[in-house]
């Protein structure tokens, strides 16, 4: 039985450690293709046995999470919202803190402090205690274990002091309440910040939530885009959004495809053209037939690619994950050692020894390490997507950042795929005017791209146009024609030509009369791209199946020194392998003929239109065929990796400095809780800078 992908919406994941505990559970179950995203609150896995799913849902919920049908429609209960928990706790914590600055006797009474602290402690037990227990059960202890132990220690210590009437020096209710309140504040800020890092996917998902005007016998009915079936006829009016992928049946329109390609200039659409779901009709009205709906649509595939990409971890994250997995037990051990050494080796006493140990627990932050990579990857992939660049995995970013070689296919990548006449060489004794007339008359009867290019190139030049009686196209060869005077013509591939520059021949009554050299025009921004690559220390390489003379000509024009011409698909593989042995290699091609080479490279980049979005061979798809997007892609990748490294450096440096400072007694637990709450926010804030920072 074939494996099927199962998708679950899971509420209650508030950090990467939560995601790790679910991931570990699913791994133990032996499931495949596991993707757990705490930011988008999604869990995916593959299984051939669908009967296992209810049991897996139960196991996830036993870890302390909630599996819901739809995140968008699910309403979190008022008491379960982290914002409301924070406000509730802050209301009780504020008067507790006031006793430190006011000499009002009532606030100093142990029972008053206990009554103010108790509601906060109960909220902390339910919020952090439940999560701590679930994480221990899942085998991946999280930050909440540290918060729960720290706040509980302060509460129990104070409670014992109150019951035994040991005096004010034993009361630390404000420490317990403040730790819980400040960490909840950190959770609120973290949640809001992480939501911003996933905005690119959420923005794209909004484009799916539209209505469609379906044409029926009696007129028009308005339905949801998700209810559109393949073959339905839809009307899209000016200012409206194309609900699904389709083909234009009638009408003309100017369509803005910026959300797919990143290109703001509208594209003209007429009968038989394809349109993409989510794009906007700026001018005109069109009637379309739905061709790709639901999960098959371009937009759905882009969203799915982005979600999978966000779950793929770069190798740089492995160190952070390893440290995070052993972090909590190590911190608990350090806190115990701090207490024992401070109590027995110094004259600090029980109270100060306890505070030092609690400070160690509450200032430690494994979440910062867990958030360092996914938040940066989400923002980086989102920024790339808004520029018409789809990156299939976070791991691709690291490979790109260290690129040494970029290998280009020629036709359709560095060149436009549109041809122009370079030269017409008439045979001795032949008239160039009549040759131009014959070429124009014959090629006007053909729909081939080269034929159209020849006609366009000869507009205004052919004065003696030949009048044809008949013209027949021979597939793969050329055109045969007969004029009104009985002359026979053949215009087609120059197989017998001795000159590589001339690739089309014209025969009149079986006699060669002319040879035509046509060339594929180089894209206007190709030279700038090659120059930009060389400037950054990347070596460009040209790899093509085209003739050596033409490849050399293109390479010389662009400034490429390494040229591999006349290569078959299997030969391209060996060329890619040679460069891979020397350093990280990117291959950029059209995504179809170059599929094997794209797969073989460290990173395959497909220069393709949105209709071929699902090509599996490439790890990156450039929806906008403007070559500037290649440079943008490289720059975004480099800055994303730089951001990850900055985040990891901060997370490690913060913990390496903060824990010893707390252990030596230089830090109040409340200050520690505040520092810990904001360490996550600093990491996320640095990732969010990627949205707006200059990457060139």
From TrEMBL:
Query: Can you tell which superkingdom this protein's organism belongs to?
Result: Bacteria
| Presence of keyword Cell membrane | yes
GO MF terms on file?
A: ATP binding; ATP hydrolysis activity; copper ion binding; P-type divalent copper transporter activity
Where does the record place the HMA domain? 8-66
Residues passing through the membrane, by range: 86-106, 112-133, 145-164, 170-189, 323-345, 357-382, 648-667, 673-690
Keyword Metal-binding belongs to the record = yes
What Gene3D superfamilies does this protein map onto? 3.30.70.100, Calcium-transporting ATPase, cytoplasmic domain N, Calcium-transporting ATPase, cytoplasmic transduction domain A, HAD superfamily/HAD-like
Q: Name one GO biological process term.
A: copper ion export
- Give the EC number(s) under which this enzyme is classified: 3.6.3.3
- SUPFAM superfamilies annotated for this entry? Calcium ATPase, transduction domain A, Calcium ATPase, transmembrane domain M, HAD-like, HMA, heavy metal-associated domain
Protein name as annotated: Cadmium-translocating P-type ATPase
Native organism? Mucilaginibacter psychrotolerans
Taxonomic lineage per UniProt? Bacteria, Pseudomonadati, Bacteroidota, Sphingobacteriia, Sphingobacteriales
Q: Which gene encodes it?
A: cadA
């Amino acid at each position: 039985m074939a494996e099927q992908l199962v998708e679950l919406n899971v509420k209650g994941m508030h950090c990467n450690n939560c995601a790790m505990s679910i991931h570990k559970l699913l791994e133990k179950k032996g499931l495949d293709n596991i993707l757990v995203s705490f930011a988008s609150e999604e869990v995916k896995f593959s299984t051939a046995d669908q009967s296992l799913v209810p049991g897996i849902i139960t196991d996830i919920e036993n870890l302390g999470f909630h599996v819901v049908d739809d995140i968008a429609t699910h309403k979190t209960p008022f008491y379960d919202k982290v914002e409301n928990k924070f406000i509730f706790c802050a209301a009780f914590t504020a008067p507790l803190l006031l006793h430190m600055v006011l000499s009002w006797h009532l606030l100093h009474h142990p029972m008053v402090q206990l009554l103010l602290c108790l509601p906060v402690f109960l909220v902390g037990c339910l919020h952090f205690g439940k999560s701590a227990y679930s994480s221990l059960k899942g085998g991946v202890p999280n930050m909440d274990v540290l918060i729960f132990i720290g706040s509980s220690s302060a509460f129990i210590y104070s409670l014992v002091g109150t019951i035994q009437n040991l005096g004010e020096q034993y009361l630390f209710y404000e420490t317990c309440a403040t730790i819980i309140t400040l960490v909840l504040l950190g959770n609120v800020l973290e949640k809001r910040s992480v939501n911003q890092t996933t905005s690119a996917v959420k923005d794209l998902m909004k484009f799916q939530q539209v209505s469609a005007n379906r044409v029926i016998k009696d007129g028009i009915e308005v339905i949801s885009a998700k209810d559109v079936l393949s073959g339905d006829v839809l009307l899209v009016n000016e200012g409206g959004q194309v609900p699904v992928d389709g083909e234009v049946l009638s009408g003309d329109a100017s369509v803005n495809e910026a959300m797919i390609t990143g290109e703001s200039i509208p594209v003209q659409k007429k009968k038989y053209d394809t349109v993409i779901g989510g794009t906007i009709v700026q001018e005109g009205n069109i009637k379309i037939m739905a061709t790709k709906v639901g999960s098959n649509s371009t937009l759905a595939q882009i969203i799915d690619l982005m979600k999978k990409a966000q779950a793929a971890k770069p190798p740089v994250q492995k160190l952070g994950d390893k440290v995070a997995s052993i972090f909590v037990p190590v911190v608990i051990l350090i806190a115990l050692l701090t207490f024992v050494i401070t109590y027995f080796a110094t004259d600090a006493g029980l109270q100060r020894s306890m505070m030092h140990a609690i400070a160690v627990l509450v200032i430690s932050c494994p979440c910062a390490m867990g958030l360092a990579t996914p938040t940066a990857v989400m923002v980086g992939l989102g920024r790339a997507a808004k520029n018409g660049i789809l990156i299939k995995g976070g791991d691709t970013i690291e490979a790109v950042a260290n690129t040494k070689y970029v290998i280009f296919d020629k036709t359709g990548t560095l060149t436009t795929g549109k041809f122009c006449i370079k030269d017409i060489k008439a045979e001795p004794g032949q008239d160039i005017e009549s040759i131009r007339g014959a070429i124009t008359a014959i090629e006007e009867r053909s729909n081939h791209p080269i034929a159209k290019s020849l006609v366009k190139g000869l507009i205004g030049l052919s004065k003696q146009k030949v009048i044809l009686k008949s013209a027949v196209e021979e597939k793969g060869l050329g055109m045969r024609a007969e004029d009104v005077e009985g002359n026979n013509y053949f215009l087609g591939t120059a197989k017998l030509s001795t000159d590589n520059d001339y690739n089309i021949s014209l025969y009149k009554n079986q006699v060669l009369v002319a040879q035509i050299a046509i060339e594929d025009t180089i894209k206007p921004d190709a030279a700038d791209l090659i120059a930009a690559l060389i400037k950054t220390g990347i070596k460009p390489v040209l790899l093509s199946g085209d003739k050596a003379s033409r490849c050399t000509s293109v390479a010389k024009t662009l400034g490429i020194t390494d040229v591999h011409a006349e290569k078959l698909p299997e030969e391209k593989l060996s060329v890619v392998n040679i460069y891979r042995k020397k350093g990280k290699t990117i291959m950029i091609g059209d995504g179809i003929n170059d599929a094997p080479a794209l797969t073989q490279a460290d990173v395959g980049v497909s220069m393709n239109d949105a209709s071929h979005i699902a090509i599996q061979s490439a790890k990156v798809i450039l929806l906008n065929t403007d070559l500037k997007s290649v440079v943008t892609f490289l720059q975004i990748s480099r800055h994303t990796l730089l951001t990850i490294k900055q985040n990891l450096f901060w997370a490690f440096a913060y913990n390496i400095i903060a824990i010893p400072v707390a252990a030596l007694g230089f830090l109040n637990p409340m200050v520690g809780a505040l520092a810990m709450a904001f360490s996550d926010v600093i990491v996320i804030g640095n990732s969010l800078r990627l949205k707006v920072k200059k990457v060139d």
